[in-house]
Design brief:
By secondary structure, the chain is α/β, with parallel strands linked by helices. The chain has 12 helices and 14 strands. The longest helix has 22 residues. The structure holds pyridoxal-5'-phosphate.
C-alpha cells in the first residue's frame, strides 16, 4: 500500500463541487486581484483566529514582511527568531532591512527557548518572531511577558498552526500580530499562493492594507511607498470554502496523531511528538525522533512510504546565512534534532490502514539488525 507524504488530490476530490462553484463565481464577477472574495475570506478568517482584523496577502513571506514593515521595523534593528524555522521567517526579517538573530529551541516542543530568547536581546532588538512549529504553539505567555518587559513587538509566525490553541487562545491572537501562509500543503492551503496577517491593532491593519496595495490611501493617492502584496480573488474564494472544513480536518489530523502515538509506543528509540499541557496541537507535521533516521527514511521509501525532514539544516548553518558568522555548535538542541527528526505522512484524508502500514515499516526497520 502506497502512503504518500501528502495527498492534496484526495482533499480536492472531497470538495470538488464547492470549489468549482466558488471558482465560477470569481470568473463571473471578474474579481481577480483583491476584491470581494478576498474581503469575504478576511471577514471569516479574523474571527476564526479570535482577532479583530485579517488582511489577505500574496503568501506567508509577504505576511511576515508586511507585518514587520507595518510595525516600523527596518535597518539597524534586530529581530529574534528560532533557528529551526523555514527560511521564510528569516528572509522576511532581512527584507525589512533588519538583522535576523537566531536562538535555540526547547528539546520537547522544538519551539523557541524562552531563556535563550531573553539572553539574545540587545539594545537594537525590536521584535521577536516565535514560530509555532509543526502545528504546536510556542510558549506564548512567557514570550509575550519578556517582550513587553523589553519593549519588543511579538509577531507570531503561525504558518504551520491554523486553528492551533494556547490555553484556548488561537494562534495569531496572542502577539501584536499573527502571520499565516496558505501555501497548498499547509493545514489551510490555497490552490496557489496566499497568506494573511491577523491583528487587533486598528492602526497597524490600516498600514498593512495600504502597504499591500502600493501604499494607496485611495486609488492613485499613495500615502507611503508600498508594494504589490495582494491576495488574488481565486485564492480568497478557495480559502473561504476550505475554512468551512478546517475544524473537521484538524480533528482528523489529531486522531491520526493519536493512532500514530499508540502504535509507535512500543518501539524502542522512537520518540513521538509531545503535546504541551497548554497546547492544542494541529499536527501540520507529525515529526518523531528516531535513531538511524536517514536509513529509516530509505527503508520506508522502498516500501512506498514517503517521509520528509523539517528541517535538515538549521538556518545558522545554511550557506545563505554564512555572513551572519554563526558556527556549528551554536545551537546544540536544534542541531541535534535536525539529525534525528523525521516527519511521517500526515494529512486529514490519511486512512488507519495507511498509518498502520507506516508503523509496520518502522517496526520492521528496527527489528532488522543494522
Ligand atoms: C510556509 C512557511 C512560511 C512561508 O510561507 P509562504 O506562503 O511559502 O511564503 C513561513 N514560515 C513558516 C514557518 C512556514 O512554514
Amino acid at each position: 500500500m502506497k502512503v504518500p507524504f501528502l495527498d492534496l488530490k484526495a482533499q480536492y476530490e472531497s470538495i470538488r463541487k464547492e470549489i468549482g462553484e466558488a471558482l465560477d463565481a470569481v470568473l463571473e464577477a471578474t474579481a481577480f486581484a483583491g476584491g470581494p472574495f478576498v474581503a469575504k475570506f478576511e471577514e471569516e478568517f479574523a474571527p476564526y483566529c479570535q482577532c479583530k482584523h485579517a488582511v489577505g496577502v500574496g503568501n506567508g513571506t509577504d505576511a511576515l514582511w508586511t507585518a514587520l514593515v507595518g510595525l516600523g521595523i527596518g535597518p539597524g534593528d534586530e529581530v529574534i527568531t528560532a533557528v529551526n524555522t523555514f527560511i521564510a521567517t528569516a528572509e522576511a526579517i532581512g527584507l525589512s532591512g533588519a538583522k535576523p538573530v537566531f536562538v535555540d529551541v526547547d528539546e520537547t516542543t522544538y519551539n523557541m527557548d524562552c531563556a535563550a530568547f531573553e539572553a539574545a536581546i540587545t539594545e537594537r532588538t525590536r521584535a521577536v518572531i516565535p514560530v509555532h512549529l509543526y502545528g504546536q504553539m510556542a510558549d506564548m505567555d512567557p514570550i509575550v511577558e519578556i517582550a513587553r518587559r523589553h519593549g519588543l513587538k511579538a509577531i507570531e509566525d503561525a504558518s504551520q498552526a491554523h486553528g492551533a490553541e494556547y490555553d484556548g487562545r488561537r494562534a495569531g491572537s496572542i502577539g501584536d500580530v499573527g502571520c499565516f501562509s496558505f501555501y497548498p500543503g499547509k493545514n489551510l492551503g490555497a490552490y496557489g499562493e496566499a497568506g494573511a496577517v491577523v491583528t487587533d491593532d486598528d492602526e497597524l491593519v490600516q498600514k498593512i492594507r495600504m502597504f499591500r496595495d502600493h501604499g494607496q490611501a485611495k486609488k492613485y493617492h499613495h500615502a507611503m511607498i508600498g508594494w504589490n502584496a495582494r491576495m488574488d480573488g481565486f485564492q480568497g474564494a478557495v480559502l473561504t470554502v476550505k475554512l468551512g472544513h478546517l475544524n473537521v480536518w484538524t480533528e482528523a489530523r489529531r486522531q491520526h496523531a493519536q493512532l500514530y502515538g499508540e502504535l509507535l509506543a512500543g518501539i524502542e528509540g522512537v520518540v513521538p511528538p509531545v503535546e504541551a499541557s497548554y497546547a492544542k496541537h494541529v499536527y501540520h507535521v507529525y515529526a518523531v525522533r528516531a535513531p538511524r533516521r536517514d536509513a529509516l527514511i530509505e527503508f520506508l521509501k522502498e516500501r512506498d512510504v514517503f517521509c520528509a525532514i523539517h528541517y535538515p539544516i538549521p538556518l545558522h548553518l545554511q550557506d545563505a546565512y554564512a555572513p551572519l558568522g554563526y558556527k556549528k555548535g551554536a545551537f546544540p538542541v536544534a542541531e541535534k534534532a535536525a539529525e534525528e527528526i523525521v516527519s511521517f505522512p500526515m494529512y486529514p484524508e490519511l486512512t488507519h490502514r495507511q498509518i498502520e502500514t507506516v508503523v509496520e515499516g518502522v517496526k520492521e526497520f528496527f527489528e532488522t539488525p543494522a
